[in-house]
Amino acid sequence: MKGLIQRVQHARVTVDGEITGQIEGGTLLLLGVEKGDSEATADKLLQKVLKYRMFADDEGRMNLSLNDTGGGLLVVSQFTLVADTRKGLRPGFSTGATPAEGERLYDYFVDQARQWHAPVATGRFGADMKVELLNDGPVTFMLEIPPAE
């Protein structure tokens, strides 16, 4: 499972002109699900997202997590994160989960996130989404939890 996290001042997702999720300050997570991912994989990634120290403390050092700051979490499914881009000029998606499995684990991830943190907002799985954000820093990290871990 892969998660691209960005520290944001604000972010929102729209589908067909309708806002499906938005946050004011916190973390935008673009989430990619791979073959072999499980609830255990999702749980590990969620805890890493919530505890990853990417927010500044009083001294300006990245010592605070989303849990520490209480900021929002906006979770957006993005299957292109799991693309194989090592060869050629066209991405391959053979390592990605099936749409049904991807949606199941995305929904599981969001449900778990809502049990551990608030506020949590989302995009809409499989939709053509427009994501707007103001990256703060910019601060962006790729988090990966291997399926077999």
TrEMBL record:
UniProt keyword list: Cytoplasm, Hydrolase, RNA-binding, tRNA-binding
Catalytic function, reaction form = a D-aminoacyl-tRNA + H2O = a tRNA + a D-alpha-amino acid + H(+); glycyl-tRNA(Ala) + H2O = tRNA(Ala) + glycine + H(+)
Primary location class: cytoplasm
Which Enzyme Commission number(s) are on file for it? 3.1.1.96, 3.1.1.-
> Motif Gly-cisPro motif, important for rejection of L-amino acids residues?
137-138
- For the keyword RNA-binding, the answer is yes
- Tell me one GO molecular function of this protein: D-aminoacyl-tRNA deacylase activity
Q: Which InterPro entries match?
A: Daa-tRNA_deacyls_DTD
Q: Please list the coiled coil stretches.
A: none
Query: Where found, per UniProt?
Result: Cytoplasm
Name the protein family: Belongs to the DTD family.
Quaternary structure?
Homodimer.
Q: What does the record give as the function of this protein? A: An aminoacyl-tRNA editing enzyme that deacylates mischarged D-aminoacyl-tRNAs. Also deacylates mischarged glycyl-tRNA(Ala), protecting cells against glycine mischarging by AlaRS. Acts via tRNA-based rather than protein-based catalysis; rejects L-amino acids rather than detecting D-amino acids in the active site. By recycling D-aminoacyl-tRNA to D-amino acids and free tRNA molecules, this enzyme counteracts the toxicity associated with the formation of D-aminoacyl-tRNA entities in vivo and helps enforce protein L-homochirality.
The record comments on the domains as follows:
A Gly-cisPro motif from one monomer fits into the active site of the other monomer to allow specific chiral rejection of L-amino acids.
Q: Which NCBIfam families does the entry link to? A: D-aminoacyl-tRNA deacylase
Name the UniProt record assigns to this protein: D-aminoacyl-tRNA deacylase
Q: Which organism is it from?
A: Marinobacterium weihaiense
